[in-house]
Amino acid sequence: MKTQNITLALPKDILLRVKLIAAQRQTSVSNLLYQALVGIVQQDDQYLQAQRRHLQRLARGFDLGTHGKLKTKRDELHARR
After folding, report:
1. 27 near 36, Cβ under 8 Å?
2. What is the per-residue pLDDT for 74?
3. Lowest mean pLDDT among 15-19, 32-36, 77-81
4. Distance from C-alpha of 24 to C-alpha of 47, rounded to nearest angstrom
């Protein structure tokens, strides 16, 4: 996999905490950020897949047991009591 370096500006207090977390997990700051970003990309992919599935279900419609025919007229359904 081809990689590309980026520049990231963080407040010093956050960077110090990130370095501490990376050291505790015995990894680098770069790897820690890589893992976090991969997680974000995977989460976005899963969301888009779920959205596509749901839109396909909506396009197909749902069988509500009426076989496309209503026994009640619209006015009866919305009649005021």
Report:
1. no
2. 78
3. 77-81
4. 31
Work out the end-to-end distance of the chain between its first and last CA atoms, rounded to an integer number of angstroms: 68
Residue with token string 């996999």: 1
The larger pLDDT score, comparing residue 68 to residue 21, is at 21
Give the start-to-end residue ranges of the domains of the chain: 12-61
Exposed, middle or buried, 75 (CB in 10 Å: 0-12/13-18/19+)?
Answer: exposed
Close Cβ partners of 32 (under 8 Å, ≥ 6 residues apart): 18, 21, 22, 25
Residue where the block lists tokens 């590309």: 4
38-76 pLDDT tens trace:
999 999 999 999 999 999 999 998 888 887 787 888 788
